[in-house]
């Protein structure tokens, strides 16, 4: 049976390799390290070492996450904030990451998303169509106030 030091160094090496390939958050890395069945003090030491050596940085992870989910998935801020909170990340850092989204691009993506959805709806009534577009935009995580402000331009 391996001793705890060799298991800890193996866990550190694997997590450092993982973090060097893609941005990770401390919550996900902690779950992976716990899989090595180490005591919580050792897990904390490994996380701190990864942070000290800049393999792990939650603020950098949030910025990358927000950028990717906005650019590729066309998610709104509400949905991104929800998923980041589920990872146990601090609200102040989440706020900083979400503020990096350009407001004009955000509005443009929202309107394009609603227009694209409106084209696929076969309902005859404008009211029914509007309801489906609003629900769709909300499931994408866009703010209701913003959706209602731009719904008419999306349905033209």
Give a short synopsis of this structure.
The chain contains nine helices and no strands.
What is the tally of helical segments?
Answer: 9
**Largest sheet report:** none
Give the number of DSSP strands.
0
Low-confidence stretches: none
CA-to-CA gap between the ends?
A: 69 Å
Helix content: over 70%
Explained architecture:
The protein has 156 residues and is mainly alpha-helical. It folds into three domains: 4-56, Orthogonal Bundle (Arc Repressor Mutant, subunit A); 59-99, no CATH class; 103-155. The chain is built from nine helices and no strands. The longest helix is centred in the first third of the chain and has 18 residues, at 4-21. The radius of gyration is 21 Å and the shape is elongated. The model has no long low-confidence stretch (mean pLDDT 93).
SSE inventory with pairings:
Blueprint: H1 4-21, H2 26-34, H3 40-52, H4 58-71, H5 77-86, H6 91-99, H7 103-120, H8 126-139, H9 144-155
Protein traits:
156 residues; 9 helices; mainly alpha; Arc Repressor Mutant, subunit A; single chain; 3 domains; elongated
């Amino acid at each position: 049976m391996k001793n705890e030091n060799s298991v800890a160094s193996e866990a550190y090496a694997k997590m450092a390799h993982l973090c060097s390939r893609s941005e990770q958050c401390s919550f996900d890395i902690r779950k992976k390290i716990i899989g090595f069945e180490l005591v919580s003090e050792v897990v904390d030491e490994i996380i701190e070492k990864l942070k000290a050596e800049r393999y792990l940085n939650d603020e950098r992870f949030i910025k990358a996450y927000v950028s990717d989910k906005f650019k590729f998935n066309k998610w709104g801020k509400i949905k991104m904030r929800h998923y980041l909170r589920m990872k146990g990340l601090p609200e102040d850092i989440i706020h900083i990451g979400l503020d990096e989204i350009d407001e004009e691009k955000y509005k443009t993506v929202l309107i394009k998303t609603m227009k694209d959805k409106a084209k696929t709806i076969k309902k005859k009534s404008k009211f029914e169509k509007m309801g489906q577009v609003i629900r769709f935009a909300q499931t994408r995580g866009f703010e209701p106030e913003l959706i209602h402000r731009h719904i008419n331009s999306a349905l033209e």
